[in-house]
Every structure is written in C-alpha cells, then in structure tokens.
Amino acid sequence: MNRIKEVLELKGIKQIWLAEKLGKSYNMVHSYAQNKRQPSLEDLYKIAEILNVEVKDLLIERNTNSNK
Question: Can you tell which superkingdom this protein's organism belongs to (predicted)?
C-alpha cells in the first residue's frame, strides 16, 4: 500500500501533473493513488524524487504483529 494520494493532497499537487512529470498516463498514476496498482520500485523512487520526499514517506507501514 502507498500514500501517493495523501502526499499529493498535502502538497497541493494534481495527479495529472505527476503523470506528466513521471511520463506515465493519468490512468496509471490514478491507479497508483487509489492503491489499485503499485508502482515498480524504480517508479516509486522517481515519484519520491519528483515530489521531493523520501521513499518511505510514500509507503504505508504494514503491521507484522502476529498477535492480532
């Protein structure tokens, strides 16, 4: 899972702008933002660079606690 949509909203950036900077279609970036698809590691690093954030800021930490 990722926080791309949240980070875009916090920075006031539109998905279409990110799609243009990333060289991807709007539909692809929208799929990333909706967590319907996950970007490749390469694209995740590009997104982080474009948005001027750390890669970890784009990720949702998964709870691996087995005592649920």
Answer: Bacteria
Domain that holds residue 51: 4-58
Q: Which DSSP string corresponds to 8-37?
A: HHHHT--HHHHHHHHT--HHHHHHHHTTSS
Question: Is residue 32 in a domain?
Answer: yes
What confidence tens digit (pLDDT) does each residue in 5-36 have? Answer: 999 999 999 999 999 999 999 999 999 999 99
Instruction: Please give the pLDDT value at position 61.
Output: 80
pTM of the model: 0.87
Count how many domains the chain has: 1
- Only one residue has tokens 């916090």, namely 10
CATH of the domain at 20: 1.10.260.40
